[in-house]
Design goal:
The protein is about 50% helix and about 15% strand. It is α/β, with parallel strands linked by helices. The strands form two sheets. Strands 3-2-1-6-7-8 form a six-stranded parallel sheet, sandwiched between helices. The protein has a two-stranded antiparallel sheet with strand order 4-5. The mean pLDDT is about 85. One of its GO terms (cellular component) is cytoplasm.
C-alpha cells in the first residue's frame, strides 16, 4: 500500500500531469450543457450519469446522447459564445504553477475538442496537448456524427492516450486527475491517480481512489512545500 506522503512525492516529481475536463477543470459537463442548449437536457443528463458511473460502455453512451442532441456547428459555436464553460476555482493557478516547474500539462477528455480547446486556451495549454472527441459536420453545418477513431471515444481511451504519451515523450511519471470512472481506470498506465470531487462526487471513484481531493488548493500547497 502506497502511503499518502509517497503519493505526494510522486505528484511533486511528475514530469506530466493529465487532467480530465468536464466536472474537473471546468464546473460543467460539456455534453449536458450542449444538450441543454439544444433543448434535450433531461434525457441526456440521465445518460451521462449512467455513463460516468461506469454502467454503460462509453462509446455506446456517447453515440446515444449525440443522436438525441444532433448539434449543428452553429449551435456549438453559439454555446461557446453565449455560455462559455466556467473554470473550476484554483485550476488556473495550479496549471500555471505546474508550467513554472516545467511540467507538461495535458487535457484528456471524453468531451468535444471544440469546447476543450477553448478551455485549453484559457489555461495556456497548447492544442497539441489536447486529446478529445471530434464532432463531425456536413458541409451545411448539420451534425454528421463523431470521429470514432479517437481513443477518447472508447472506454479505456484515456489509458491509451497516457500510454501513447509515455512512448512518445518518455515521461517517467504521469499523474491523472479527474472525477469519473474513465479517469480512475487510466491508472495504470498513469503512475498516480488523484480523484477530484470539487464539482461532483462520484462515490465509486471516491471509494477506489488512494488520493481524493475536493479543492485544487490541496495540490497547490503540496507543490509549494
Amino acid at each position: 500500500m502506497v502511503s499518502h506522503s509517497e503519493l505526494r512525492n510522486l505528484f511533486c516529481s511528475a514530469d506530466a500531469v493529465c487532467f480530465d475536463v468536464d466536472s474537473t477543470v471546468i464546473r460543467e459537463e460539456g455534453i449536458d450543457e450542449l444538450a441543454k442548449f439544444c433543448g434535450v437536457e433531461d434525457a441526456v443528463s440521465e445518460m451521462t450519469r449512467r455513463a460516468m458511473g461506469g454502467a454503460v460502455p462509453f462509446k455506446a453512451a456517447l453515440t446515444e446522447r449525440l443522436e438525441l442532441i444532433r448539434p449543428s456547428r452553429e449551435q456549438v459555436q453559439r454555446l461557446l459564445a453565449e455560455h462559455p464553460p466556467h473554470l473550476t476555482p484554483g485550476i488556473r493557478e495550479l496549471v500555471s504553477r505546474l508550467h513554472e516547474r516545467n511540467v507538461q500539462v495535458f487535457l484528456i477528455s471524453g468531451g468535444f475538442r471544440s469546447i476543450v480547446e477553448h478551455v485549453a486556451s484559457k489555461l495556456s495549454i497548447p492544442t497539441a496537448n489536447v486529446f478529445a472527441n471530434r464532432l463531425k459536420f456536413y458541409f451545411n453545418g448539420e451534425y454528421a456524427g463523431f470521429d470514432e477513431t479517437q481513443p477518447t471515444a472508447e472506454s479505456g481511451g484515456k489509458g491509451k492516450v497516457i500510454k501513447f504519451l509515455k512512448e512518445k515523450y518518455h515521461f517517467k511519471r504521469i499523474v491523472m486527475i479527474g472525477d469519473g470512472a474513465t479517469d480512475l481506470e487510466a491508472c495504470p498506465p498513469a503512475d498516480v491517480f488523484i480523484g477530484f470531487g470539487g464539482n461532483v462526487i462520484r462515490q465509486q471513484v471516491k471509494d477506489s481512489a488512494k488520493w481524493y481531493i475536493t479543492d485544487f488548493v490541496e495540490l497547490l500547497k503540496d507543490l509549494e512545500e
